[in-house]
Every structure is written in structure tokens, then in C-alpha cells.
Amino acid sequence: METIYIAFLGFGTVASGTYQVLKQQEEKIATSMACQVQVKKALLRNRGNYVKTAHHDFELVDSLDAILTDESITIVVEAMGGVDFAKDCIEAALKAGKHVVTANKILMAQNGEELTNLAQSQGLALYYEAAVAGGIPILESLRTSFRAEGLHSLSGIINGTSNYILSEMTDQGLSFEEALQAAKDKGFAETDPTNDIDGLDAARKLAILCRLAFGMTIPLDKMAIRGIDHVTSEDIKNTSTLGYLIKPLATAILDDDGALSVQVGPSLVPKNHQLATVTGPMNAIYTRGWASGEVMFYGPGTGALPTGNMVVADILKIVDALVHQEHIPALSRYHVPLNLSAADREIFANFYHFKLLDRDKGLFKLTALFEKYGASLNQLTPIGRHHVLAISQAMTWQDSKELIAEIENIDGISIDRIYPILGQ
Ligand SMILES: NC(=O)C1=CN([C@@H]2O[C@H](COP(=O)(O)OP(=O)(O)OC[C@H]3O[C@@H](n4cnc5c(N)ncnc54)[C@H](OP(=O)(O)O)[C@@H]3O)[C@@H](O)[C@H]2O)C=CC1
Ligand SMILES: N[C@@H](CC=O)C(=O)O
């Protein structure tokens, strides 16, 4: 039976999960693929950090060349993270004629198009299923199962740390700081959790999703990105009384003219919506399409085995094509020129949390202002003595900012919060 050899670049959480799946399912893989898949080498930066307790049957090497010049190695798995060195390694591996699998979301969000083009020009695979929502096979589903679908929108909970933090604040009454510490203790958060909290991690994953779902490559500076660190327990309580949960959502909505609106940030999800059931560190991607209707993909967004399972799926896709001498399909969609919403990051609906210091005077002025912007105060609920919550439909982000600026100038009102609402 033929053997296909692979090499790891880095051997941390994802690589060791990948190795574990390959070893544990060795027989099943060999039988179903009519081919054996074996790890031959792993590039390590610091052998001292390598966990010796794990049994391994591959060679540990210190230089990339030891992998690139080994002609028996067909597939390179980049599992180091970071941008510059990882990019150099992937380019070098492709130029050396090796197929590449990576879980690197930062690199694939930033340089995905360029690297995919390089792989395609070489007739090689560059697969990165594990880069978005770790254990959920969403990218391949978008590429294959939704090939003929015209998606209208995609909303995802694609950062497990921020979902865990907001869930703990909602369900256990923890403060933001307590919930963040718990996320660190449980290993969901990155070593430096800044990008989990400020929305950048989810924005990178959304950029990758949009390439596969809508064919558009979106630079991160064109997205409206907000973090979850300003969410307070009071907001959670107040919005809950109105029937909403605050969730870390990444959303892309395509309008009838083909313009995409993209945003990431804490958003209000009606309690009876499927995305409201996605709690703790779990991830989900909810799509609405012309033909498929509503579909939700749900699963773990992180962890050695779930993520390793997706890396193995990418490896086996390549193995399958090699064994059957088939063309290697590119993990990309037809390219559509970037077309962001004319209204610049339109938000379907907004939620405002006001403190009316002088209730009667404030309310009068607030209603007049909303009228001026063509928005509606369609849910106005006093909470406590001076709090009022209001929801206005379908405002643009630019209008929202202007409205807020005007509100802040009114005596007797202080605006505390603004949250978008998941489009119904
Ligand atoms: N963990 C998860 O659940 C998920 C991770 N990912 C992505 O997968 C990738 C890997 O993540 P993860 O496994 O968690 O990271 P880890 O930190 O656990 O592992 C990274 C490994 O790469 C090694 N490494 C880093 N830089 C170099 C280098 N210059 N040369 C050689 N080896 C190097 C590290 O070595 P050393 O020990 O010396 O630092 C370590 O062994 C990242 O891109 C991450 O974003 C994606 C989805 C989920
Ligand atoms: N820190 C990330 C891990 C996976 O990408 C998250 O919390 O989702």
C-alpha cells in the first residue's frame, strides 16, 4: 500500500491534536483511503518545550530545509501561528512543490488571496479549514454545498472566548474581569486575549468566511469592529428584560445591489433565535440563502482534537486527490470585486440604552431626534426610575454616529450603549 508522508511546522496544540487523530484512526484512514498517511518530520523551535510524554514516531528537525529537500514529503502542515515566518515557510513549501495545510487565521485573513493564487499557479493545495471555527467544517461546506447558492447573509459566533465571557456574565452573573479570568483558566483565550476581546480575532475569521461565501476579499480596516469589553452586567440585565441576549456576532449582509455590509461586535439576539442557544465557548455560523433558507453550523471553535480533526480532513482531501490522480480543487470561490455597502457598514437595526436624567424633557427631545433621522422608537421601556431603552429600525452606521453625537449634546440625556440587533 502506498504511503503519503507529511511534515509539521510547529508541534503545539493543533499539531498534536492532528497527530493524535491520524494515529488513533490509522487503520480506518488506510482502509478508506487505500493509502497510508504518516508523519515523517516536525520542525521545532525549541525541543525543550516539546512534550516528551506523547509517543511519537517521527523525526524532530531544526531547519525548514530538512523538510523542503525531503522529496518523500508531500504535505506540509503549518501549525506555528504568527505571520511573517509562517508566510515565508508556506511560500517556500509551495515553491518546493509541497501541498500545504494551515490553521493560521491571521495569515489567511491577511494574505489568503495571494497565497491561494500561488498555490493555484503551482497546481497545489492550500487548505485552511481549521482557521475558522476550529472544529466546524464551514469553509468546505461554503465551497461545495453552497456552490450554487446565493447567500443573503451570514452571522457567526466565531470567537469562543468572547462567547464564553458573555455567557458567564449572563448565566452566572460574573463580572467581565471574572469571566475573562475563567476563560484564561480554561484555555479558551489566546495567551494574549486582546484580539479575542477587541473583536479582531472574529473579524479575521469573518474576512475568510466572506471570501468563501461572497467571493469578496475584505480588508479589516473596512469592517466595523467593536470589542466586548464595554458590555456591562447592567446592559445584559436590561436587554434581557426586552427579550434579547447580548452575543459576540460577526455579520455580513448582501443587499440587492450586491453590496456587502460587514460588522463585528456585541449584538442583540432575540432569545428565541437559534444563535441564542450557542453558549459557553461553542461556535456557530448561521446562514440565510435564496435556495437553502436558514442553515446553522454548530460546534467547538477551539481545542486540540476538534481542530486537529479539521486539519486531518484537509490532509485527507489532498490524499484522496493524489490517490485518484485528480485535480486538486482550490479552496476559493469566484472572485467578486470588493463592494461594500453604499451606506458604509449599514446596520439593520440599532438598540440604544439611554439614561434620561430629566425623563419628560429628555423623552420629548429624543422622540423629535429619532423622527429627524427617520428612525422609530418602537420599543421604549422604562427600567428603574430614569432608564429608557429604545430600538430603532434600519439605520446606517453613519446616521447612528450622527444621532449619538446629537443625543450627547442634549441636556438631561446621557447615552450609555449602542448595540446592533441581529436582522430578523
Ligand atoms: N488552539 C486552537 O484551538 C486553535 C488554533 N488555531 C491556529 O492554529 C495555529 C497553531 O495554534 P496552537 O497549536 O494553538 O499554537 P501553540 O502555541 O500550541 O503551538 C505552536 C507551535 O509552533 C511552534 N513554533 C512557533 N513559532 C515557531 C518557529 N518560528 N519555528 C518553529 N516552531 C515554531 C511552537 O514552538 P514553541 O513551543 O517553541 O513556542 C509550538 O510548538 C495558530 O495559527 C492558531 O491561531 C486555529 C484554530 C484553533
Ligand atoms: N481564541 C480563539 C481560539 C480559536 O480560534 C477563540 O476564542 O475562538
From TrEMBL:
> Which Gene3D superfamilies does this entry report, sorted A to Z?
3.30.70.260, Dihydrodipicolinate Reductase, domain 2, NAD(P)-binding Rossmann-like Domain
Q: Does the keyword Iron apply?
A: no
* PROSITE patterns in the cross-refs: HOMOSER_DHGENASE
Task: Show the InterPro entries listed in the entry.
Answer: Asp/hSer_DH_NAD-bd (IPR005106), HDH (IPR016204), HDH_cat (IPR001342), HDH_CS (IPR019811), NAD(P)-bd_dom_sf (IPR036291)
Provide the GO biological process annotations: methionine biosynthetic process; threonine biosynthetic process
Every Aspartate/homoserine dehydrogenase NAD-binding domain range: 10-129
Q: Which residues bind L-homoserine?
A: 190
Provide this UniProt record's keywords sorted from A to Z.
Amino-acid biosynthesis, Methionine biosynthesis, NADP, Oxidoreductase, Sodium, Threonine biosynthesis
Q: Which domain of life is it from?
A: Bacteria
Pathway stated in the Swiss-Prot or TrEMBL entry: Amino-acid biosynthesis; L-methionine biosynthesis via de novo pathway; L-homoserine from L-aspartate: step 3/3; Amino-acid biosynthesis; L-threonine biosynthesis; L-threonine from L-aspartate: step 3/5
List the active-site residues.
205
- For this protein, the parts annotated as crossing the membrane are none
Q: What class of enzyme is it?
A: oxidoreductase
**Residue ranges of domain Homoserine dehydrogenase catalytic in the record:** 137-316
**Family matches, as SUPFAM superfamilies:** Glyceraldehyde-3-phosphate dehydrogenase-like, C-terminal domain, NAD(P)-binding Rossmann-fold domains
Q: Where does NADPH bind?
A: 105
Q: Which family does it belong to?
A: Belongs to the homoserine dehydrogenase family.
Name the PANTHER family on file.
HOMOSERINE DEHYDROGENASE
Protein name in the entry: Homoserine dehydrogenase
Species name: Aerococcus kribbianus
